[in-house]
From TrEMBL:
Domain of life of the native organism: Bacteria
Name this protein carries in UniProt: XshC-Cox1-family protein
Biased composition (Basic and acidic residues): 362-371
One Pfam family of this chain: XdhC_C
Residue ranges of domain XdhC- CoxI in the record: 11-78, 115-178
Positions of the XdhC Rossmann domain: 201-343
UniProt region (Disordered), positions on chain: 358-378
Length: 378
């Protein structure tokens, strides 16, 4: 739901009633992951998607029904071999979808947080006692929370702690709370949707390849910074799509700026006086990705220099160099595409190999099995 928060926030401000359908669990080759959402207002306007088109019509009708009767439901959709005309997923996967009428509670605050870029997590019960289905908490980074799941205060505290852990990692997905933790006589499943600021991509080296990489980074949803020590190259005119342009020695800027486990660092300078001190620092930071541009000869020389300044073999193993996947890229745009592809593969656990003829999963997020229990609540 937080993926379409900006438009939903406008609906709230306009006083429009709406229902939201959210993917809560997937199995097989499902097209969308948990958290994907479709919303329908009382006038029939729809935004978002839960399946890329396979079951949108049926889910749309479920949202219209939820607006009429005020009931929260979980429905399962999968492929049917017996009936070619049945509503289902042509990809052969299975998805469970939570459909909830949105009428106050913590939802307006959650949508406002997502719209403004404030970190927060929305935790909703998607499997458990029927009278608790769809109940929600809004959890903040400091562990405080709004809303009530019902049943027992201990449940709210346990759910808030689980949601905060997901928020700290910037993850959206489901978590299980055992019977003891739920205090309601049976286990619960929560869908936790994390709203966090965009992850950072820092591009070092204001070259023409960097300009193309900025565009790819923005397309992938990153907050992109370009850093170069040369003011004549690090300009807004050359990088109009960058969120931030910094004129500074790369290693000094890296030491002074904030990074986290989602940050990607792309070193395009391929100049030892910049690369060595920068990579010496970068390879010791808890970031998601460190890649460096250069020929294989440059790579070998750079590794030698890094070893000489004390970089360990374990640290060097983190370095993606030469940067990018082997696409045969030549132009800046093609090279940026290969770098973006490697970043996605690194994030999702993909191999980078062609899918044609392969027998590996298409999606590498380790999806959970669909929920075992389907229920509804007034």
């Amino acid at each position: 739901m937080l993926d379409i928060a900006e438009e939903l926030h406008r609906w709230v401000e306009q006083g429009r009633e709406f229902a939201v359908a959210t993917v809560v669990a997937v199995g097989g080759s499902a097209p969308r992951q948990p958290g994907a959402a479709l919303a329908v207002d009382s006038d029939g306007t729809a935004i978002g998607s839960v399946s890329g088109g396979c079951v949108e019509g049926a889910v749309y009708e479920l949202c219209r029904q939820a607006l009429e009767d005020g009931r929260t439901v979980v429905e399962r959709f999968g492929y049917s071999d017996e009936d070619a005309f049945a509503v289902g997923l042509t990809c052969g996967g299975i998805i469970d979808i939570l459909v909830t009428p949105v009428r106050g509670g913590v939802y307006p605050a959650a949508l406002a947080a997502a719209t403004t870029g404030e970190a927060a997590a929305l935790a909703r019960i998607v499997d458990g006692p029927e009278d608790l289905m769809g109940r929600a908490l809004l959890v903040h980074p400091d562990g405080s929370y709004e809303g009530l799941l019902g049943g027992h205060p201990e449940l709210d505290r346990t759910a808030a702690a689980e949601a905060r852990a997901m928020l700290d990692a910037g993850r959206t997905g489901t978590v299980e709370i055992g019977e003891d933790g739920s205090r309601c006589g049976q286990p619960l499943t929560l869908l936790v949707e994390s709203s966090v600021p965009a992850p950072r991509m820092i591009v070092f080296g204001a070259i023409d390849f960097a300009s193309a990489l900025v565009r790819v980074g923005k397309f992938l949803g990153y907050h992109v910074t370009v850093c170069d020590a040369r003011p004549v190259f690090a300009t807004e005119l050359r990088f109009p799509e960058a969120d931030e342009i910094v004129v500074a020695w790369p290693h000094r800027y890296l030491a002074s700026t904030e990074v986290d486990a989602r940050t990607v660092l792309c070193v395009l300078t391929h100049d030892a006086k910049f690369d060595v001190p920068l990579l010496q620092a970068a390879l010791r930071l808890p970031v998601a990705y460190v890649g460096a541009m250069g020929s294989r000869r440059t790579h070998e020389d750079r590794n030698k220099r890094l070893r000489e300044v004390g970089v360990t073999e374990l640290e060097l193993a983190r370095l993606r160099s030469p940067i990018g996947l082997d696409l045969g890229a030549r132009t800046p745009e093609e090279t940026a595409l290969s770098i973006g592809a490697e970043i996605v593969a690194n994030r999702r656990g993909g191999s980078g190999a062609a899918l044609t003829g392969a027998h590996t999963p298409i999606h590498h997020d380790g999806p959970r099995e669909p929920l075992g229990r389907i229920g509804s609540v007034a």
